[in-house]
Amino acid sequence: MSGRTQVFHDIISAILKGEANSVLKSINLGLQIGMSANEILEEAMIPATIQTLDKYQGEDFYISDVINASHAIEAGLFALKPYIKKDPNKRKKIVIGTVKGDIHEIGKRLVALSLGYAGFEVVDLGVNVSPVEFVRSVEQERPKILAMSALLTTTMGEMARVIEALEKHHLRNSVRVLVGGGPVTREFAESIGADAYGSSAREAISIAQSLVIQGSKRERDCPC
């Protein structure tokens, strides 16, 4: 097993075991041997987070295991942040949050970090975000994209309420809406009037980039 492969394996294993210190140790080792933060994110952090989300779906798990795994992922993401390259001339703003009634953080945080690494300026509203808070942030931040996450079937409907609130405040045409999360589907996204659906952090990046391009073209073509 090569040095890089070993680092990836160790990070994934440590996250699944909920060992934050081991995650940090392996990330530091990877950076020391010349690995990029993006490489570590793509080949270790994202796969480990996906495995974690899959592992802790349903009812057959201990809450303490979820918390430990979450802390391990958080530690890894925080360690990678200083190595994210920023280009203020090309950055487009995205507001992201988990909808009201839902406190799931891991997947949303991974998407936020991935988007930041891809060159977007990310405003993370956190979890349990109400329609009023989403609308207020769109008014204040003027983002190109509003991204919403839901990990519970019981909270998916909040996405529709946010879109309705944007329409009520005459903001819907000013922002592209991207939705995602475990129970969310492309069909659901279309049914509530969202502009796009992302099934993973990696897909969210390419979709966000596409939405920005579409938005820029729409602005150029607008006769107003």
UniProtKB/TrEMBL annotation:
SUPFAM superfamilies on file? Cobalamin (vitamin B12)-binding domain (SSF52242), Methionine synthase domain (SSF47644)
Keyword hit for Cytoplasm = no
Record keyword Hydrolase present: no
What GO terms describe the biological role, i.e. biological process, of this protein? homocysteine metabolic process; methylation; tetrahydrofolate metabolic process
Q: Which domain of life is it from?
A: Bacteria
According to the UniProt record, what class of enzyme is this? transferase
Under the heading Pfam families, the entry gives: B12-binding (PF02310), B12-binding_2 (PF02607)
Entry's Gene3D superfamilies?
A: Cobalamin-binding domain, Methionine synthase domain
Q: Which residues form the B12-binding domain?
A: 91-218
The B12-binding N-terminal domain sits at 1-92
Name the InterPro entries for this protein.
Cbl-bd_cap (IPR003759), Cobalamin-bd (IPR006158), Cobalamin-bd_sf (IPR036724), Met_Synthase/Corrinoid (IPR050554), Meth_synthase_dom (IPR036594)
Q: Name one GO molecular function term.
A: metal ion binding
Matches recorded under PROSITE patterns: B12_BINDING (PS51332), B12_BINDING_NTER (PS51337)
Give the EC number(s) listed in the UniProt record: 2.1.1.13
Signal peptide region: none
What are the annotated GO cellular component locations?
cytosol
Recite the UniProt keywords alphabetically: Cobalt, Metal-binding, Methyltransferase, Transferase
Q: Give the UniProt family note.
A: Belongs to the methylamine corrinoid protein family.
> What protein does this entry describe?
Methionine synthase
**Species name:** Neomoorella thermoacetica
Question: According to the entry, what is the taxonomic lineage of the organism?
Answer: Bacteria, Bacillati, Bacillota, Clostridia, Neomoorellales
Name the gene behind this protein: metH_5
